[in-house]
Design brief:
alpha/beta, YbaK protein, 169 residues, ProX/PRXD1, aminoacyl-tRNA deacylase activity, single chain, YbaK/aa-tRNA-synth-assoc-dom
Length: 169
C-alpha cells in the first residue's frame, strides 16, 4: 500500500493550513467494512471509484457519499463520454496515476496525479450538503481522514483538479 505517501499528503495539507481529523482503523476494502469504524464521525463518508472511458482512454476519479448509488451509464451520459463507455480502471493504472492500490482510491491521491490526466468528479452534496467534514482515505485504507468541504475544494484546485460537480440523488 501507499502508507509511505501519507506523510507527504499530510505535509502538503499542513502547508495549505488545512486541518484534518483522522480515524485509524484496520485496513478495509469496502464501505461496508469501513462504516463500523466511523460511527462517531460527524460528516459525509465517501466512496471513491476509479474509472476509465473505454473510447477516449480518459481516467476519472468519482467521489460520492458512501450511501449513493452510482449508475455508470447515467454518469457516462452526464460526463459526455457516451452510455456504456465507463468502466472500472485496473489497479495498475491507479497505482501509476494516483500511487494507491485496490481499496485505497481517494480524491486526496490527486496530489500525486502530476500530469493532471485524471478528471475529478465530486458528488455535489459533499460540497453543498452542509457537512462539517467529508471523509476520505489518506493514501491508506487503514485510516479515514476528515477534511472541511471548502478545504477539499481548495486542495483539489491547488493540485490542478477543478472538480466536475454531479448530483447522485
Amino acid at each position: 500500500m501507499s502508507e509511505d505517501l501519507r506523510p507527504q499528503l499530510e505535509e502538503h495539507l499542513q502547508s495549505l493550513n488545512i486541518r484534518t481529523s483522522c480515524v485509524e482503523h484496520p485496513p478495509v476494502f469496502t464501505v461496508e467494512e469501513m462504516m463500523p469504524h466511523l460511527q462517531d464521525v460527524n460528516g459525509a463518508v465517501t466512496k471513491n471509484l476509479f474509472l476509465k472511458d473505454k473510447k477516449k482512454k480518459g481516467l476519472w476519479l468519482v467521489s460520492t457519499r458512501h450511501d449513493r448509488q452510482v449508475n455508470l451509464n447515467d454518469l457516462a451520459k452526464k460526463l459526455g463520454v457516451g452510455s456504456g463507455n465507463l468502466r472500472f480502471a485496473n489497479e495498475a493504472a491507479m497505482l501509476e496515476k494516483l500511487k494507491v492500490g485496490q481499496g485505497c482510491a481517494t480524491a486526496l491521491a490527486l496530489l500525486f496525479d502530476k500530469d493532471h490526466s485524471v478528471k475529478c468528479v465530486l458528488d455535489r452534496d459533499l460540497l453543498e450538503g452542509g457537512h462539517d467534514m467529508v471523509y476520505f482515505h489518506p493514501m491508506t485504507n487503514g485510516a479515514t481522514m476528515g477534511i472541511h468541504p471548502d478545504d477539499l475544494l481548495r486542495f483539489l484546485k491547488e493540485t490542478g483538479h477543478e472538480p466536475v460537480l454531479e448530483s447522485f440523488d
